[in-house]
Design a protein that fits this description.
The protein has a single domain, classed as Alpha/Beta hydrolase fold, catalytic domain (Rossmann fold). The protein is α/β, with parallel strands linked by helices and about 300 residues long. Helix content is about 40%, strand content about 15%. Strand 2, helix 2 and strand 3 form a beta-alpha-beta unit. The protein has a seven-stranded mixed beta sheet with strand order 1-3-2-4-5-8-9, with helices on both faces. A two-stranded antiparallel ribbon has the order 6-7. Helix 2 crosses helix 11 and helix 4 crosses helix 5. It is built from eleven helices and nine strands. The chain is globular and about 50 Å long.
């Protein structure tokens, strides 16, 4: 194995070694607003579009929003297959760096695996992430529509042996809303990964997803930023147990909303308005709490100086 073939061992090494092509992040959505920024991360095999509804709701409230694109995504199936979780995370750090150029307060979050990547960012950059938005966060694919062999997926990890099998998407494709489901299915089957992601996910990606989850689970207790968890009761891909686990193991305040009329893609499904409204309220509350905390700290410093 040559020096170039060796996989980087740390997130920093990946960020330094992988420089995205100029067009690689063009599918991301950056909406300039105020000094509070929200970083939104899509799921495995997904696209920034799946977070567009939430993003525009936050932008209308005056916030700066960035829906970033993960490495290997929105491109060819082979590029997705070759990508690793450290490269996905490097994309998140790069997006966070861009937001920090414009914002004083940053809330990070995402859909499914995107929420797990955001949690890893909150652990690694505790002073740069002030809150978390976790939409159907996924630690394990144990939803009611997953095939029986999906239980085995939980145990695979990245190995020198190449996994060349793909797991095809299954009905209801994370969507209870039949109209939206038909649109998303048509986009996936068109072969254009820019619109709704891929119709099948490489096994290698699940191996990398599991490696990411193993790392983040060990970090949860030290993630003390306030978090909002939104999870559907009838999640077809990742059961409500995922939300329960995070609620029990995260180290800070956790606000949880359980949806009764949605499946996994809560940011697109028929209760997306509920998700957007609750997200906006949480972000506004967090901003107020941070500002109030800063004012109290300034008052204490002033009293001490006297």
């Amino acid at each position: 194995m040559t020096e170039q073939d060796k996989e980087p061992n740390t997130d920093r090494e990946v960020a330094e070694q992988r420089q995205p092509a100029p067009d690689e992040q063009n599918r991301g959505q950056f909406i300039r607003g105020g000094r509070l920024g929200v970083l939104l991360v899509h799921g495995l095999g997904g696209t920034p579009t799946e977070l567009g509804f939430i993003a525009h709701g936050l932008a209308r409230a005056g916030h700066t929003v960035y829906c970033c694109q993960l490495a290997g995504h929105c491109r060819t199936p082979e590029e997705l297959r070759r990508s690793t979780w450290r490269e996905w995370y490097a994309s998140v750090e790069a997006a966070h760096d861009r937001l920090r150029e414009h914002c004083d307060i940053i809330v990070a979050g995402g859909l499914s695996m995107g929420g797990i990547l955001a949690t890893h960012l909150a652990h690694n950059r505790p002073d740069g992430v002030h809150g978390l938005l976790l939409f159907a966060p996924t630690l394990k694919l144990d939803g009611w529509s997953m095939p029986w062999y999906s239980r085995l997926l939980h145990y695979i990890r990245p190995l020198p042996i190449r996994f060349e099998f793909d797991l095809t998407e299954r009905e209801p494709y994370g969507l209870r809303d039949e109209r939206v489901r038909a649109l998303v299915l048509s986009s996936m089957q068109s072969g254009d990964a820019n619109l709704a992601g891929t119709f099948s996910t490489p096994m290698r990606c699940f191996a990398n997803f599991n490696a990411l989850v193993s790392v983040v689970k060990r970090e949860l207790g030290s993630v003390r930023q306030p978090a909002l968890i939104v999870h559907p009761r009838q999640d077809d891909m990742a059961s409500l147990k995922n939300a329960h686990y995070l609620q029990a193991h995260l180290g800070g305040l956790v606000d949880t909303l359980v949806l009764d009329e949605s499946y996994h893609m809560v940011t697109l499904d028929q209760q997306r308005h509920v998700v957007a409204e609750r997200t906006g309220r949480f972000v506004s509350w967090l901003e107020g709490a941070i500002i109030a905390k800063g004012e109290i700290a300034r008052m204490i410093r002033g009293i001490s100086a006297e």
